[in-house]
Write a structure and sequence with these properties.
By secondary structure, the chain is mostly helical. It has helices at about 15-20, 30-35, 70-90, 100-135, 135-160, 165-195, 200-230, 235-265; strands at about 10-15, 50, 55-60, 60-65. It is built from 8 helices and 4 strands, in the order E-H-H-E-E-E-H-H-H-H-H-H. It is elongated. The protein starts with 8 loop residues before the first strand and ends in a 5-residue tail after the last helix.
Amino acid sequence: FRVARVQDVSLPVYGWFEAWQNSANFSSTLTNLQAFVKTPEGQPYAEDVRFDGDRLVATRLRILVAFPKNANRQIRLTRRLRRAARRAKAHNVKFRVSASRFAWLERYDAIYVNTVTTLGGAVVAVILLCSCLLTPLATALVAIDVLLVNISLLGGMAICEFRLNVVSLINLIMSIGFSVDFGAHIAFACSYHYTSNGGSAADAIEAALIELGPSILNGGASTALAVFILAFSSYFAYFQLAIMFLIMVISGLCHGLLFIPAAFCALHPSKL
């Protein structure tokens, strides 16, 4: 049985077939199999075979799986077993692998695809919306700001050893909104003061920070204080939410109040 060759799958592959072969009156005929599952020895396997008249239409075989403790290895094992099933289907064998843990592991297997598609869609939506409301340079700065905040948040997750799960995905999605909130106002104010006042980029940045800097700092501080108490929770999901929120706010403030003005000044833009 080829599935037994998959890593982390232990021999023997057991089930009705081995029990039937080892029975006292074994004969490789369908009639003998039908008689076997009616005996006390074969009764435990009666649900593992399905007959349609004189045809065997479906069977179930059981395998012993040494599930690794590491979730990533468990996901890889699930994928290997499913690949074995697909290889069997390529030889006209209708074969499906199932286990009670597969439903639990499915969320880990799906979270990566959902993360890429959700974050990618959110970033694209932010860029399209900013392009309608901001100048091209401001839109580019906001897009870079969003990417840097998310990279900072992913780095914080790695340092804190947080897994990518539903809670962390929610924080990653929210970080896009917060980083836009922190960065778009400054980028818009810099562009506005630069074009309307006709001064230098440094003058525009100074005016933008004086006008919006305190409000952005107050917004970031109030957001951080709102979730700070959760960092002392014994419930891990709340603790993870608080730490990622703090990383998100600190990173968003730094990139919004430091990176965007510095980049705007360094580029020395002409009329936008």
